Amino acid sequence: MARLIVESGNDAGMVYPLGNSAVTVGRSASCDVQIIDKRVSRHHAVIQPQRHGYVIEDLGSKNGTYVNNKPLVGRCQLRNGDRIQIGDCELVFELDADEPSQAGQDGKTSSGVKLDDPDGMPSSGKIVVESASKLVEPELRFQREGLRDPFERLKVLYRVTESIRSILDPDELLHRLMDIIWEIATPHRGIVLLKDLEEGTLEPVVVRVRETASDEIHISRGIVERCMAEQVAILVSDAPSDVRFAANESVIQGRIRSAICVPLVAKSHVLGVLYIDSQVPGEVYYTEEDLELLKGIATQAALAIENARLYQQLIERQKLEKELELARSIQINLLPRKPPEVKGGSFAALSVPARKVGGDYYDYLELSDGRIALVVADVSGKGLPAAILTATIRASVRMETHVRPEMSVRDLMSAVNTWACKDSSNNMFVTMFFAVFDPVKRTLEYSNAGHIPPLLFKPDGSYQQLQRGGCFLGIMEFVDYESETLEVETGDTLVVFTDGVTDTHNEQKQVLGLDRLITTIQENLHLSAEELKDEIYEATLMFRGAEEQFDDITIVVARF
Length: 560
Hints:
By secondary structure, the protein is of the alpha+beta class.
């Protein structure tokens, strides 16, 4: 009888038997297993009996279901001892010792896999094959006669295809595969070793042994590495009778009589190996027919594993895309919805990230005394890390201007720098231009923290660069920034931009540059602030052509 045991939570110690019908888990009183926890959904998960045991499926819960500390995606085959986390409640899935599970009728799982150093492994040859008829006495030979028939082997391969083609969870797929191998090959030990996608090391993902097998599994590293390096299947028909393996430490410690190791190859990429062996003399000796069958199974399994991995990556990518879309909508909402309406001035702006979210930021702030503050910042890097730091810079600027609206421009820059040093990592910094326009006095006070110098144009096309200020924000604390106050006349135009504008490059790897930008602005000074902003952005599009946008682009135009 299978059962669920509550190990932690309000009902710790409770035991729920699992029978032939589905068992629902959730906060609702209608659930078979009720968990009173606000983090648990009303109908959170369901456990269903299957031919080969039980599977658990999350029912779209808000906070998810975890099996052995891994988030549950889709359906998952439950194994004896699996730990299920739902909210603050932890349940353990248990099977009676005499009840078959997905491990097989007399199988158990083990994690004690050791790859021994290569010794006694031949260094050449396509496939190591020894005929059982030559190495084994007739009375000790055990043949699974049915599998010698090619038609029967074809039926097995068809069964494998039918069993695993619709399984998209890699863990469930591999255990189902081992179920079939356990049944047809009757090994004493079966292991699936897969290469870690990040580190490239071999990791045992499915380990199954019979009760009579040794607890720690020793496998010859030479067999496994050669199997993967040469992409060949290896058969050891009778290891103790073979002089090449008689002194092999893994053969001696594992009491190996016969073994098969086949590579899992998908699209010329080796994913890992499938290894089985037998230990009891006279019970099972693997033959060339077994080898060919395992090779066929491994080929199908490798493709299924690759498809399952691609599916999981697709799910993760879609999830990330949704999160990035949400982050993008949040970042867009942080930008001003419309420019301020001020007598004697007009403003226009746009910001286009190179990715879903970016590190550029601009803002208008209407101060209590009627002045208008303008800020443009550019965080080093792109993507989500830059977007997060951008949000903190925005928050610090708004807080400082709200709490101390009378603060000078240079003092505000110093205060924001202090916050940036606390919030940024060692390899990130911020450039920022901050200016305050006084519509009554017709003055513009500014400070530039390492930002690409904005351009202040006169109606005749002459200009000056606004460079006074100091170093980047977030590099060092207690920096004294400088500021400058300029008188602005009717018709003067201020253009503030990030380096994504001037660094725009085309297919010939040429950059737009400052000279082309200045020429574009001078040719369009007769336009409104909104129209001039559009012309500048259009110039970047025309210049880069089919080339992708390399960096975030922000443009702010102020017409006084």
